[in-house]
Structure prediction request, 162 residues.
Amino acid sequence: MYSFSGLGLYSVLMIFEHRFRVRYAETDAMGVAHHAAYLVWFEAARVEWIRTLGFPFATVEGSGYLHAVRQVSVQYHRPARFDQLLALRLALVGAAGARLTFGYRLYDAAELDAGPGAAPLTVGKTELVWVTPAGRPTRLPAGHPLSPVLAGIARHPEWGEW
Prediction:
């Protein structure tokens, strides 16, 4: 029925990190990242997170389950700049019914690598809803290969609060 190379049942305390550089096209004339770029970065981190779990998102969508964004919150503390190496950390805040909530913390990678105490440039949260190809909200069925993997990932509710 499904053709996934999933990792099966496991329990993991997972905070995923996605590193990348701010591209020129994502900045304004002063070299500061545009506020909308952060949403693209959040999406890129989610796609890589689910790929790391063994489920390329195109395969998940091919099984008839898509994500629709229900809510986005972002707090910008300091700007990201052109060519800056960033570390975007993502954690699963909650998963209930059709909803998945993710928390994000974006750091300057050099500050993060220097040791504890790095302050995030930006924090964010997205709430997604599983939907059918027709756009109707739905739960991911228990028999779907991704369901037990999501069930085994520790939740980080503190990442949904600032």
